[in-house]
Design goal:
Elements lengths: L4 H4 L6 H5 L6 H21 L2 E6 L11 H16 L3 E6 L6 H10 L2 E7 L7 H16 L28 E7 L20 H4 L1 H9 L3 E2 L3 E3 L8 H15 L7 H13 L2
Parallel strand pairs: 1-2, 1-3, 3-4, 4-5, 4-6
Length: 263
């Protein structure tokens, strides 16, 4: 049983397996498509997707954006190499609010790459969150509410999220040195970790039901920059958290052989 080469494009990674069989009649092609469609769906279900958001904002003489672009590129390369589908948003270059809602729903993992400006994100990121998360809330796609109801206000605040199963990770660039965190003797943060300092950021996602992963930080970028070291450390961080996506291709190809050879 054979299938037209133009029909093979719908098979994604299976297209090469399909193309070698060459063309056949329309009725046979339809039969093959019916048999293969569940296999394509099975393969797509195993895919994992990651959305990388670059929140960098340009400030002359302070923040040119090269480091954050470099780290976002490393994340893109590493996740693609692990078999993840990747989409990106560079906030400063503009975005469509509905498109960003859809990207969040598409993604299994959301990674925010951002410089730290005055102990928070650049203001364009706050605008992005207000627009995208509010749209997701009104559409009842990110959350159904805060978890409580007027009938039962005792329900736990923050339990109304609808994005369970997704994960969120911060990747940050700091002027602050590593030593400023996790040390009760440090006068500014008094023992707080980076994750403690950025709880107001991660709470947005936790409020929507997303699991928050340990953050990554590139420290002391103004006085003691070490870009090569930061890249290696970031790769190690990603390697420790994210497993490669297991491909079902061998199993699917076996089933495809059966579909193509059966009468």
């Amino acid at each position: 049983m054979k299938i037209n080469p133009q029909d093979c494009h719908a098979l994604g990674p299976l297209s090469l397996r399909c193309q070698r069989d060459g063309p056949h009649d329309a009725e046979t092609n339809m039969q093959v498509r019916r048999r293969i469609r569940p296999l394509i769906i099975e393969e797509k279900k195993t895919m994992k997707n990651v959305l990388i958001i670059n929140a960098h904002q340009f400030f002359e003489g302070i923040s040119g954006g090269k480091l954050n672009s470099t780290l976002a590129g490393v994340i893109r390369q590493e996740m693609a190499a692990r078999g993840y589908g990747v989409k990106e948003t560079y906030i400063e270059q503009g975005y469509d609010v509905q498109g960003e809602v859809d990207k969040h729903l598409w993604a299994d993992i959301i990674i925010l790459q951002s410089p730290v400006f005055w102990f928070g994100m650049p203001w364009i990121y706050k605008k992005y969150v207000d627009e995208v998360f509010t749209a997701g809330m009104f559409q009842q796609r990110f959350l159904s509410g805060d978890g409580r109801t007027r009938e039962d206000p005792r329900k736990q605040y923050g339990s109304g999220g609808k994005m369970h199963g997704k994960q969120y990770m911060l990747s940050l660039t700091w002027n602050a040195p590593r030593a400023a965190f996790g040390d009760a003797g440090q006068m500014l943060f008094e023992g707080k970790t980076v994750d403690d300092v950025f709880v107001s950021n991660t709470a947005n996602y936790r409020f929507c039901g997303v699991e928050v992963l340990p953050s990554f930080s590139c420290f002391d970028v103004m006085k003691q920059p070490d870009v090569a070291g930061a890249i290696e450390e970031l790769r190690g961080h990603l390697d420790a958290i994210f497993d490669p996506v297991a491909s079902p291709l061998p199993q699917v190809e076996s089933k495809m052989d059966e579909a193509l050879t059966s009468p």
